[in-house]
Structure formats: structure tokens, C-alpha cells
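Lab notebook, design round three. We kept the backbone fixed and only want residue identities now. Task for the bench partner: fill in a sequence for the structure below.
Input C-alpha cells:
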């Protein structure tokens, strides 16, 4: 090749693509709705409902209705002003078509349409349109009803006037694109939880949801809360014991920010806090949460000092002290909120911090002065938390001394991996020495660590940190993870980016898994929120016909695999002219005959003959019954294994369920079990 000759890399201006209009949304949907799984699917409904909520916050809508219709169709209707339908002066198309087909088009950019709103980027309705097979918009305004239909984000025709109208409002009906989403099956309960939240946050709006997909199982719920977030706090605490009767509530505007805050203390050991901006939940908090926590700590410390409840002058209650047992809802409304990402997970406005801090600080000081009995209950709770924190600090220092996570104090029963790259490393938490032995022999030592647990760990739902640090099994987990715990938790020091819970498929295994998840959710929630926690899926059955072996993870798979394997033998037999093949070497017994045998490891074996084909079925009662090779092949090999990642889709619902199932109150747990008993699958008694 000549010296000056250029190599053709195949990369030129022809390779540069420009995605026009909504094509960018269809190509990269995760950028706009978070994912193409169930979370993203439900986000479509949220985007349309948020537009109706904006109308309600502006004082123009009183009723919102959501219908789940057959064939995965969703209808959202409100009685707001109706999306404008007149031609846009610049784009020469109707405003309705503009907001449904153009990204960053809407009435929320300071044009006077809304003072505050949840939709700030102007992409909500257009994104739903882009990710739907079809969408239909109906607008009632100016005495007329207007309609326009879309297919794959594109209008099928111009907007049409189809009749008269005495009221006003907007109705959006759409069907998500099944080629884009992993599932288009909506969960009624997930949508209901979000709508209930909206009703709490927007006083005076009536929100209804109807599931009409199956006429035989019609479901419907309507929410209307005059108490707003005060009612929300009472709802969150309905299964807990409140330390004081009155819910603290303040509603005030400061520096252009409308601040609503409600709180109440309970006998719990954890904090339950939900923050919202313009009715949009901010699961990662933000500046409004910072302002609230600063105000809470300052106000309670000031009151405690004024009443001489702190022994020493320089002694102070910490943020952790004043947040133990706290249930709080923060809802602010602001004209120009600055969110991180389209999913609006975290608020960044600095003015929100100052506004919330000043409003809550002043109001809480007045509340405690005017309600000494309530203030006394709050102070007794936080001072008790302070004493527990001091005891926990002593326990922590004895367990997690400086340098204790450098490797030489790792628990002795931990079979660590050789890799020091946390992103490639994973730790399996298994129950018992038997399963621990099999998994240690079957693992890949380079990147897989094994930590066996002995028996059931402590139920942390009703335990403080000092008691947790005194539990040997939990202590081993904390040290093995390397993150520390409580106020010293640091996820950057996580030693394994995949934490895999691997328990037996029985009642005890399920209980141990639940206890572990309770511990992680309450004391290391970042591990769940960032997707580091997994549930291993060991098979229930080993099916063998001759040399053909398959593993089934449930009864349905077992039946399917047996059918497929028997048909394969029959096809093989037919191909050989009906002669017996190797798999049928053993004597055939009557059709569907079955016998129980005893396996080498003591596990139950079932042998049945189907169509002259002998089928051996092994039912695994525990991980220890698998030999190391089987455990690796089915459950630990990254190439062939199945695992479920644990995510927190709805923090409020997760908090409530953990409190019901793992808390001290028996009656709520009994009601929950009675309500959901018929829907339980794979119950092993």
C-alpha cells in the first residue's frame, strides 16, 4: 500500500443520521420513559394523567377518570379547559396536533398557560403518541367537540369538528406499541396507587379508575381527599402507633414557592418520607428535602434547649435522631422546577431549599409551643432515639473499626472471590452449610463469593441499629458488603455489584429471603434502588429421558418439557421405522404408570412411563440436594442461569407491605393474608 494511500474505514458523512420528530423517541424510548418494561409502560399513563393534574392544580379541572379497556387500551378523561385546537401562529397546525407530534411543545414554558405544572419538558403527550400503535384525542371546548386520530405518532387526518359540547375537557385514548414494550399488560393496582397519591396531593379533585378489561371482573375505585397530605400521612400511619394525635401541617408560600408539609411521629424505628414537586414524586429527594430536614433538626433542637431537655450545652440531636419514627409528606409547587432527567427523580432548585426551610422552621416552632403535649411526645421519641444511636455507635465501633473492611476481618465463613473488581464480582447469600458446600464447590472462584447463613436472621423491622450490630449473621453481611451501615453507609465501597439471595424453594427459604430483603430495604435501600440485589432461581425439577436432561423451574415447565421430550423420542422412533431406540431400553410399563424411588442423596425421584417412554423426574427440596455441577449449570452459570432483579417500583406501597408483613401488629397481617390468600401461587406447605 502506498504511503499516502488512505484506509477506507467505512465511516463517512453518509453514516451520520438525523432522527426527525418522534423517531428519536421510538429509537431510544428509555431516554424518555425510563425503560421499555412494566415501569415504562405505566409511565405512559402517568404522562397523560399528569397533564390532567396540571389542569386541576391550575383550578380548571375537578374530575379525572382513567379506564383500562380490552386489548390494552387506556382512556384518560378530564373536565379541564381542553387542549387548544386553533391553528398555531408559527407552525400553522392546530395546537392539539402540535403538542401531540412535536417534542418540547406545550403550555408550560412560561407562556401563561400554567403557573405551575408537573410536565415541564413538553414531551409527555408526544412521547405517548410516539410509543403507541394508535392514539385518539377528543377535545371539548368553545361549545364544540373536536377529534383527531394518530397512527405511530403521525396524524391520520386533520382535526375535525364532530359535534357540540356543553362542557369542556380532554380525553386521550391510546394503545401502546407491543413491538416497543416488553409487556403491554397494565397492572390495575400500580395505576391505582399513583392515582391515590395524586388525589392526596391535589385537594378537591376527584379521581376515578376503572378496570373494564374483563367484564366478569370489573373493578373501580374513586379517590377524593379534602384533608390533602394530612390525610396522606394518616393513611401511611394507619398500621402504626402514632406518638401524638395531631398531624402537624403547614401550607404557606415563600419566595414564590408554595409549600405544603405534613408530619407525624410513630413508634417505628425508621423514617418514612415522600417528596413531591408539582404533584410529581421525587424518589431521590432534592433541595426541598434538604430544607425540610434542616428545619426539622433546628426546630426540635431549639425547643429541647429552651425546655432544658438536653443535658449539656454543646449536646445536640442529630438528623438521624429527629427522623426516627417520622412520617412526613413534602409537597411544593414552583413555577420553574429543575429536575434531573425526564422521570423527575430529584429536584435541584436552590430556592426550594430556602423556602421549605423557613416555612417549616417557623411553623414547627409555633406548633410545639402551642401543643406542649404533642411536643413532649415528639421529644421523648427523639431523645430515646439519641440514646439508641449512642449505644449503636459503641456497637458499631466494636464491629466496624477503622480498617476493618480491608480484608483481614472478613467473616471466616465467607468464601471470597479472587477478583477485586467490584463491578465484576458477585456474592451469593445461601442458607445452611449444605447449600454453602455445594455452592462453594460449584462456583467460579474468580468472581463469585459465597456467604452461608445459619438459620433465620433477625427481623429488623422492629429492631434498632445497636441490636442489629449484635446479630452475628447480619454483622457478617455488613462486613462482607463493605458499605458500612446507617449514617456511615457508603455505596462506593460496595465489594460486589451483584448481591444474589439464593434460598431453598420452600416456606423456610421464602421466610429467610423476606428477612434479608427487609434488612436491605430498611438499612441499605440504595442497594435495591441501584439494582444490585438479585433473587436466584434454582430449578424445582430435573427431568431425564435417556441422555436428554432438562431442568424445569415450575410445574408448568415440567409438563411442557415432558411433553416435548416424549414427542422427540416418538419422532425418533418413527424415523427409525418404529424400532425401539436407546431411550426405551428399560422395560415399558402401563401407560402413565408411576413409581417412587429413592435417590442417591435421599431426594424423591419419580419414574413414569408415557407412551412406552420412561421419564425420570427429580424434585429438588433444597439447594443442598444438587451436586456442585448441577448447581453451577442451573443457577450460577451467568450464561444459562435465571435471576430476578429486585426493584422498588412504588416506595410507599413497599413501605406499607413491609410494615404489615414484618411489623409487630398481628391484625393487619391477618387481614392482608385473608385478602390475598387466593392469589398466592406456588404455595409450599
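Proposed sequence:
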Amino acid at each position: 500500500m502506498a504511503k499516502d494511500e488512505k484506509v477506507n474505514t467505512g465511516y463517512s458523512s453518509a453514516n451520520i443520521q438525523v432522527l426527525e420528530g418522534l423517531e428519536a423517541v421510538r429509537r431510544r424510548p428509555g431516554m424518555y420513559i425510563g425503560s421499555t418494561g412494566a415501569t415504562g409502560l405505566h409511565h405512559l399513563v402517568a404522562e397523560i394523567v399528569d397533564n390532567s393534574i396540571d389542569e386541576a392544580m391550575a383550578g380548571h379541572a375537578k374530575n379525572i377518570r382513567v379506564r383500562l379497556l380490552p386489548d390494552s387500551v387506556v382512556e384518560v378523561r378530564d373536565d379541564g379547559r381542553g387542549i387548544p385546537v386553533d391553528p398555531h401562529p408559527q407552525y400553522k397546525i392546530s395546537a392539539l396536533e402540535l403538542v401531540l407530534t412535536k417534542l418540547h411543545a406545550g403550555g408550560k414554558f412560561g407562556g401563561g398557560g400554567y403557573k405551575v405544572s408537573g410536565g415541564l419538558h413538553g414531551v409527555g403527550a408526544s412521547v405517548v403518541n410516539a410509543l403507541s400503535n394508535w392514539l385518539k384525542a377528543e377535545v371539548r371546548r368553545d361549545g364544540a367537540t373536536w377529534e383527531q386520530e394518530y397512527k405511530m405518532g403521525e396524524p391520520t387526518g386533520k382535526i375535525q369538528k364532530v359535534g357540540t359540547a356543553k362542557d369542556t375537557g380532554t380525553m386521550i385514548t391510546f394503545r401502546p406499541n407491543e413491538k416497543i414494550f416488553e409487556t403491554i399488560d397494565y397492572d390495575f393496582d400500580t395505576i391505582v396507587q399513583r392515582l391515590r397519591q395524586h388525589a392526596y396531593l391535589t385537594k378537591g379533585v376527584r379521581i376515578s379508575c376503572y378496570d373494564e378489561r374483563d367484564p366478569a371482573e370489573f373493578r373501580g375505585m374513586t379517590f377524593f381527599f379534602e384533608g390533602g397530605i394530612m390525610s396522606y400521612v394518616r393513611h401511611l400511619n394507619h398500621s402504626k402507633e402514632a406518638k401524638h394525635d395531631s398531624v402537624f401541617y403547614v401550607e404557606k408560600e415563600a419566595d414564590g414557592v408554595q409549600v405544603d408539609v405534613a408530619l407525624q411521629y410513630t413508634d417505628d424505628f425508621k423514617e418514612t418520607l415522600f417528596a413531591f414537586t408539582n404533584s410529581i414524586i421525587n424518589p431521590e429527594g432534592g433541595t426541598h428535602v434538604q430544607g425540610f430536614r434542616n428545619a426539622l433538626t433546628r426546630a426540635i433542637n431549639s425547643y429541647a434547649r429552651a425546655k432544658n431537655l438536653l443535658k449539656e450545652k454543646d449536646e445536640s440531636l442529630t438528623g438521624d435522631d429527629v427522623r426516627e419514627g417520622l412520617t412526613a409528606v413534602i409537597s411544593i409547587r414552583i413555577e420553574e422546577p429543575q429536575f434531573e432527567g425526564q422521570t423527575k427523580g430529584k429536584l435541584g432548585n436552590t430556592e426550594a431549599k430556602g423556602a421549605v426551610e423557613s416555612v417549616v422552621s417557623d411553623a414547627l416552632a409555633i406548633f410545639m409551643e402551642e401543643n406542649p403535649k404533642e411536643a413532649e411526645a415528639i421529644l421523648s421519641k427523639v431523645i430515646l432515639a439519641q440514646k439508641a444511636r449512642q449505644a449503636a455507635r459503641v456497637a458499631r465501633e466494636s464491629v466496624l473499626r477503622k480498617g476493618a473492611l480491608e480484608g483481614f476481618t472478613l467473616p471466616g465463613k465467607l468464601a471470597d472471590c479472587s477478583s477485586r473488581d467490584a463491578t465484576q464480582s458477585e456474592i451469593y447469600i445461601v442458607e445452611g452449610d449444605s447449600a454453602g458446600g455445594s455452592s462453594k464447590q460449584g462456583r467460579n472462584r474468580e468472581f463469585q463469593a459465597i456467604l452461608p447463613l445459619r438459620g433465620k436472621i433477625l427481623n429488623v423491622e422492629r429492631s434498632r441499629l445497636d441490636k442489629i450490630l449484635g446479630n452475628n449473621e447480619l454483622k457478617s453481611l455488613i462486613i462482607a458488603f463493605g458499605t458500612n451501615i446507617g449514617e456511615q453507609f457508603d455505596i462506593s465501597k460496595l465489594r460486589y455489584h451483584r448481591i444474589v439471595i439464593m434460598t431453598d424453594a420452600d416456606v423456610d427459604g421464602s421466610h429467610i429471603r423476606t428477612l434479608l430483603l427487609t434488612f436491605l430495604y430498611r438499612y441499605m435501600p440504595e442497594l435495591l434502588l441501584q439494582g444490585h440485589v438479585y433473587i436466584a432461581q434454582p430449578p424445582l425439577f430435573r427431568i431425564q429421558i435417556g441422555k436428554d436432561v432438562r431442568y424445569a423451574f415450575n410445574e408448568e415447565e415440567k409438563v411442557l418439557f415432558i411433553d416435548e421430550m416424549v414427542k422427540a423420542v416418538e419422532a425418533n422412533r418413527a424415523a427409525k421405522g418404529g424400532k425401539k431406540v436407546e431411550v426405551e431400553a428399560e422395560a415399558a410399563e402401563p401407560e402413565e404408570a408411576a413409581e417412587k424411588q429413592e435417590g442417591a442423596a435421599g431426594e424423591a425421584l419419580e419414574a413414569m412411563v408415557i407412551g412406552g417412554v420412561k421419564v425420570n423426574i427429580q424434585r429438588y427440596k433444597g439447594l443442598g440436594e444438587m451436586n456442585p455441577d448441577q448447581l453451577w449449570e442451573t443457577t450460577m452459570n451467568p450464561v444459562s442461569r435465571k435471576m430476578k432483579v429486585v426493584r422498588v417500583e412504588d416506595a410507599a406501597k413497599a413501605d406499607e407491605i413491609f410494615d404489615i408483613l414484618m411489623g409487630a401488629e398481628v391484625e393487619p397481617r391477618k387481614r392482608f393474608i385473608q385478602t390475598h390468600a387466593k392469589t398466592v401461587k406456588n404455595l409450599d406447605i
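Keep this in mind before ordering anything: The longest helix spans residues 372-399.
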